[in-house]
Specification:
The protein is about 40% helix and about 5% strand. The chain has about 325 residues and is mostly helical. The strands form 2 sheets. Strands 1-2-3 form a 3-stranded antiparallel β-sheet. A two-stranded antiparallel ribbon has the order 4-5.
């Protein structure tokens, strides 16, 4: 009887499928009922054990999609502020999640691989071959650093433990994306159909397209491992997952290198964005203010009309 009462109590929130509160409340309710069952206080089926929420198509949300090649080119050539510029490149050529990128340590990068050491699922813990077009970026960011140092050291610490390390990067990306005209919102929908995660979707799409065109050395199951998706959710989970074991690093490398940046990006500088004079006038902003160049020279002034324009084009990253 009590589980039914609890279900009725939470039901109003569950009707709004885009509500994060409804999802958390459902998880807490399910766990609490399971705790009561173990102690013999309640009997019967847990009404929340099979509860699912479709967070992608609820009211006020949008069906997410990959970036188009044109959008990727616009973003990778238009974003020059660091660390956002480098993080976008890494996302596009690894398929990594934004938090996975933000939390990388120098010791996670080496021997031609990136080690993702933690994640929400077992499959998220994985090794990803380094794409040739980002090898120089990662070398520059790890050379001379101790193993525990952050690869993207410009990201300031967050005051709240609940606020992920990647949060300020995500905010800066939204501003840059909109300034570059990369946005898509249906009428009455609050969220854009594209976000930083669309780099991950784009990587997935490009690897699949390459496979469909005859790229050799990897399979869709290899791609799932590179992406950090469980093979149990793929067809033939036993034949293609459990029995053969993980894909070889050679197969993963073939998968990663099958993804190519749009030609427009390659024409404008290959693996690294070229900063414009206007953009370089405003250094990235950290929790302690403008970052001073490593050579000790003073940071450019942020006062005046030119500095305001640069700040609008290259939004800073601040701690919270």
């Amino acid at each position: 009887m009590f589980p039914c009462f609890l279900a009725l109590l939470i039901q109003p929130w569950s009707l709004s499928t885009s509500s994060q509160f409804a999802i958390r409340a459902s998880i807490l309710a399910s766990g609490f009922i399971a705790w009561l069952e173990k102690r013999g206080y309640v009997t019967g089926e847990n009404p929340w054990s099979r509860q699912r929420f479709d967070t992608r198509n609820g009211q006020g949300s949008a069906a997410k999609r990959p970036f188009t090649d044109d959008e990727v080119a616009r973003l990778l050539t238009g974003i020059v502020a660091q660390p956002l510029a480098d993080m976008c490149r890494v996302a596009a050529l690894t398929g990594m999640r934004i938090n996975e990128i933000a939390e990388l340590r120098a010791g996670d990068v080496g021997d031609g691989e990136i080690a993702v050491r933690k994640g929400k699922t077992k499959a998220a813990v994985r090794s990803i071959p380094i794409h040739p077009d980002i090898s120089a970026i990662l070398k520059r960011r790890t050379d001379g650093k101790p193993a525990t140092a952050d690869v993207f050291h410009e990201i300031p610490p967050q005051r709240s433990a609940e606020r992920g390390r990647a949060a300020p990067v995500g905010q800066a990306f939204v501003k840059s994306r909109r300034n570059l005209g990369v946005d898509e919102r249906a009428e009455g929908v609050r969220q854009s159909a594209v976000d930083f995660h669309s780099f991950r979707r784009w990587f997935d799409r490009k690897a699949l397209d390459a496979f469909a065109r005859g790229a050799r050395g990897f399979t869709p199951w290899t791609l799932a491992e590179v992406m950090g998706h469980s093979l149990n959710d793929m067809p033939l989970p036993m034949t293609m997952g459990l029995y053969p074991g993980p894909s070889s690093m050679e197969a993963k490398r073939a998968c990663v290198e099958a993804v190519r940046l749009p030609k427009e990006v390659c024409r404008r500088g290959g693996a690294r964005p070229r900063a414009t004079a206007r953009a370089s006038a405003a250094p990235p902003v950290t929790a302690n203010g403008p970052r001073v160049p490593r050579d000790g020279s003073p940071a450019p002034s942020r006062s005046g009309r030119g500095a305001r324009q640069a700040h609008e084009i290259v939004p800073g990253i601040r701690g919270h």
